[in-house]
Amino acid sequence: MKTSDFDYELPQELIAQDPIEDRAASRLLILDKETGERKHKVFHEIIDFLHPGDCLVINNTKVIPARLIGEREETGGKVEVLLLKRKEKNIWETLVKPGKKARPGTHLSFGNGLLKAVVQEVVEEGNRLIQFEYDGIFEEILDQLGQMPLPPYITHQLKDKNRYQTVYAKYEGSAAAPTAGLHFTSELLERIQQKGVRIANVTLHVGLGTFRPVKVEDVTQHHMHTEYFQVPEEAAKMINETKKQGGRVICVGTTSCRTVESAADENGMVRAMEGDTSIFIYPGYHFKVLDCLITNFHLPESTLLMLVSALAGKEQIMEAYQEAVEKKYRFFSFGDAMFITDDLEVDVDE
After folding, report:
1. CA distances from 243 to 75, 251, 291 (A)
2. Strands (DSSP E) found in the chain
3. Is position 346 within any domain?
4. pTM confidence score
5. Partners of 122 in the beta sheet?
6. What range does the domain containing 116 cover?
7. Are 116 and 130 a contacting pair, CB within 8 Å?
């Protein structure tokens, strides 16, 4: 299986640069994973395709304003630091630009000295371990100085930080948003629950590896990044009961999918647990828990495109993407959504 098998043509103008005003007004392409049949809807209509007894799994991670712009104290040269993962209280693994000028011992300053840092060492993939120095509470300083770490394909400035958060974001720790969840409003989630659909909360802190390209031609040789995840007891119980009672487990986003699949045993029973996962899902993978998936449209040759292809088949996904391009859907983080399901029948409340 080649990485190039997952390539497709995407006109630049279809990459969404800004979130639309109404989260739930995005377009929704519904794909039947069994037959390949497709329907075109508006996102808030997804409720018509959910059944009482289903379980929606959402990732309640919160994006931190992890992009810091500062300067090197020795020269005054500009530096950009992206926080990836907290290693200790004041030590973070980071991505620094320009990396060549951020050797161990380099002193950095942000916000006219409100936040200072020293580069400690260079680690895997050229990332830097940085120790921060400050007075007060780090999170408050970060909120004041940091910017949302938008993906590189988004060139517009984000006017409202909250638009790169889901309405249910709770636990800080992500370097990127679980973007499939951006389409939900509190009102829509409430209506979904009233219909008899359960909502299970899990956490996976999205790392920047999400945007790293696959650099090997043989898909199986790709090394997946690790991300921290947690499945609480309540969520595990809810998911297992849903399966037992014949309901469907519908994951909101690839991060929720990777979380439940990481926490499942060989029999598909989800365990309450936390830890790091580097699960890599590509065609040939047997899903142990997930039945259906709500997701966005993903980058060509990405691990996320491989994951959705594992669920619905590469040919069907590529045909759906081609149709989405022809119908001018909006792509990537602020773009439109796709629901990969096993049932295109509408289930409207009487």
Report:
1. 60, 13, 10
2. 27-32, 38-42, 55-59, 61-63, 67-72, 78-86, 91-97, 107-110, 115-122, 128-134, 171-174, 198-204, 227-231, 249-252, 273-277, 292-296, 337-341
3. no
4. 0.92
5. 128
6. 67-145
7. no
Which parts of the chain register pLDDT below 50? 350
How distant, in Å, are the alpha carbons of 76, 92, 100, 109, 120 from that of 106? 12, 15, 11, 10, 8
**CB neighbours of residue 76 within 10 Å:** 8
CA distance 327 to 39: 12
* CA–CA dist 66, 151 (Å, integer): 12
The answer to whether residues 26 and 338 touch, using CB atoms and an 8 Å cutoff, is no
Residue type for 188, please? L
User: What residues contact 121, with CB distance under 8 A and at least 6 apart?
Assistant: 104, 128, 129
Q: Is 166 helix (H, G, I), strand (E, B) or coil?
A: coil
User: Hey, what are 242's tokens?
Assistant: 């849903």
* Claim to verify: residue 273 and residue 177 sit in the same structural domain: yes
Split into its structural domains, the chain has a count of 2
- Give the model's pLDDT for residue 350: 42
Exposed/middle/buried for residue 251 (C-beta within 10 Å: 0-12, 13-18, 19+): buried
Any idea what the CATH number is for the domain that residue 14 is in? 3.40.1780.10
At 15 the pLDDT is 96
Q: Which of 117, 145, 173 is the last residue of a domain?
A: 145
CA distance 288 to 173: 27
